[in-house]
Amino acid sequence: xxxxxxxxxxxxxxxxxxxxxxxxxxxxxxxxxxxxxxxxxxxxxxxxxxxxxxxxxxxxxxxxxxxxxxxxxxxxxxxxxxxxxxxxxxxxxxxxxxxxxxxxxxxxxxxxxxxxxxxxxxxxxxxxxxxxxxxxxxxxxxxxxxxxxxxx
Length: 152
Fold this sequence. Notes:
Blueprint: H1 7-38, H2 61-85, H3 89-108, H4 115-140
Helix pairs in contact: 1-2, 1-3, 2-4, 3-4
């Protein structure tokens, strides 16, 4: 059985992926600005979404802002991805997260090894998938695509 890929489908997928990445980073910077304002911090670093070296401490306001903005961004992006990709939120959520890891590695010129960053990223990804898939199921349950598992 040969793999058949149509160019039109690939363009749609790449366009949806581009839209999800734009939504993710636009949401990230908006939430980051709100959190910086709420915590009354003086300086907003433009590379804050890619910061994994901040000392994890519950009394460090910079860390709290980075953590809160990451989790809120993932939660809200899961809701917004539904309007772009409908029931494929989980797929695009994982792909956007991998792209974010690659960009973070490129921006910081170092692979993130901080356990607290991976824990925050993983919990954010799980919340994005759960919230997005739940909303997609609720909105599109009449025409939700269920996988055919006859060949497995």
